[in-house]
Amino acid sequence: MHISIAAETLFMIGPLPVTNALLMSWIAMALLVAVGLSFTYRMRVVPGGMQNVGETIIEAGIGFFSDVMGSRREAEKVFPIVATLFIFILLSNWIGLVPGVGTIGYLEEPKEEIVHEETVAPVDEHAAPEGETEEAAAPAEAEAHGPVFVPFFRSAYSDLNMTLALAIISVLATHVFGIMTIGFFKHAHKFFNFSSPINFFVGILELFGEVSKMVSFSFRLFGNIFAGEVLLVVILSLVPYVAPLPFFALEVFVGFIQALVFSMLTLVFMKVAMAEAEGH
Amino acid sequence: MDVPAKRSMDLEVAKNFAAAIAIGLGTLSPAYAIGYMASRAMEAIGRNPEAAPKIQTAMILAVAFAEAIAIYALVVALVIKFV
C-alpha cells in the first residue's frame, strides 16, 4: 500500500515537472472546454438541446449567488470566477473517484540508494526519476527501497500545489474585485489605516488574515481530498468488494461539499471586499 | 545481559503515537463547535422556517470554517505519518 503526500512526477517539460495530479487537472480542463463548446454550438435565441442544459445550470448558479450576494448585479460581476471555481473543483474531485485513478500506473526503480542520516535531514524520497538524491558518505544508514508504484492519474486536488494555486488565485481575485469596485485607496485603507494606532494594528492583522485565508483555503481542500484518497486506499486494501461503496458515496458527497464551500467562501470574501468599509 | 535496556521509544513507535494523538485531540474542539453551531441553526430554522435558506447558507459557511481546523490537525497527522 503506497501512499505519498507529494504527487509523483511523471515526466518533465523543460525544467518543469508534470505530476499525475496536474495531468488529471488537464483532463478536467479538456472535459470542461468540450462541454462548454457543446453548450454554445450554434446558439439560438430559443435554446434547444445542450444549450438548454447549460442555461439551466447557469440560471441555478446565478440565482444561488444572487441570494448570497444580495444583488444580482454584483453576483453577475463575480459569477465567472466563482462558478468556474465551483465547477472545476467539483469535476476534478468527482473524476478522481473513477476506477483507474490511483490504481493504474507503473513501477519505478529507484536509481540511487536513498540515504537517511541520523540527524533526520529531510531527504525527499519522492524525487523525480532523474532527480538528484543526496548521498552522504558520512556515517549513515543506507536504505535501499524497492520499486515504487507511481500511478498515472491522481485526484487533482490531492496535491497541495494545486490547492495552493487555487487559494492564491481566489484571494487575489477578492482583492482585484475590491479594488475594481470601491477604488484602490478605499481598499488599501482597510489594511493600511493610519488614523489611530489601534486601527493600524487592526489593519496589519487584516493583512495577516489574508495570508491565513490562503493557508486555510489550500489546506481545507487538500486535507479533505487527500484524506479521502487515503481512506479509499486503506479500505480497498482491506476489503476490496462491496465494503468500499459507502466510502465512495462519502467521497462523492465530500467532493461536492468542498467545491461548494470553496466557491461560497470566495463569494463571501468578495462580498466583504466589495462592500464599503462600515464605521466601527 | 549484553544489551542495555532501552529507555525510550523507537522513532517509528513515537511517530505512530504522535499521529494518533494529533488527530484524536485535534478533532475534539471542531466536533463540539460544529455540533453547537448546527444546533443553534436548527433552533433558528424551527423558530422561523421562512428564513431557512439564509440560515442554511450561513451555517454551511461557519461549519466549513470549523471543519478546516479539524483538517489542519489531520494534515499534521498525515505529515507525521507519511513524511
What does this structure look like?
The complex is a heterodimer of chains A (280) and B (83). Chain A is mainly alpha-helical and 280 residues long. Chain A has 2 domains: 9-104 and 154-274, no CATH class; 110-146, no CATH class. Chain A has 7 helices and 6 strands; from the N terminus they run E-E-H-H-H-E-E-E-E-H-H-H-H. Chain A has helices spanning 20-40, 50-69, 72-95, 160-182, 184-191, 197-238, 245-274, and strands at 9-13, 16-19, 105-108, 114-116, 141-143, 148-151. Residues 116-143 of chain A have low confidence and may be disordered. Chain B has 83 residues and is mainly α. Chain B has 3 helices and no strands. Helix content of chain B is 81%, strand content 0%. Chain B has helices spanning 11-26, 28-47, 52-82. Chain B has a single domain (11-82), classed as F1F0 ATP synthase subunit C (F1FO ATP Synthase). In chain B, helix 1 (11-26) runs antiparallel to helix 3 (52-82) and helix 2 runs antiparallel to helix 3. The mean pLDDT of chain B is 90.
Task: Set down the secondary structure blueprint.
The complex is a heterodimer of chains A (280) and B (83).
Chain A: E1 9-13, E2 16-19, H1 20-40, H2 50-69, H3 72-95, E3 105-108, E4 114-116, E5 141-143, E6 148-151, H4 160-182, H5 184-191, H6 197-238, H7 245-274
Antiparallel strand pairs in A: 1-2, 3-6, 4-5
Helix pairs in contact in A: 1-2, 1-3, 2-3, 3-7, 4-5, 4-6, 4-7, 6-7
Chain B: H1 11-26, H2 28-47, H3 52-82
Helix pairs in contact in B: 1-3, 2-3
What is the count of distinct domains of chain B?
1
Give the topology string of chain B: H per helix, E per strand. HHH
Number of strands of chain B: 0
Q: Name the CATH superfamily assignment of chain B.
A: F1F0 ATP synthase subunit C
Major sheet of chain A: order of its strands?
1-2
Give me the number of helical elements of chain A: 7
Q: Identify the biggest protein-protein contact and residues per side.
A: A-B, 20 and 17 residues
Question: Given the structure, what is the number of helices of chain B?
Answer: 3
What distance separates the N and C termini of chain A?
A: 55 Å
Helicity of chain B, in percent?
over 70%
**What name does the CATH topology of chain B carry?**
F1FO ATP Synthase
In whole angstroms, the N-to-C terminal distance of chain B is: 36 Å
- Mean pLDDT over all positions of chain B: 90
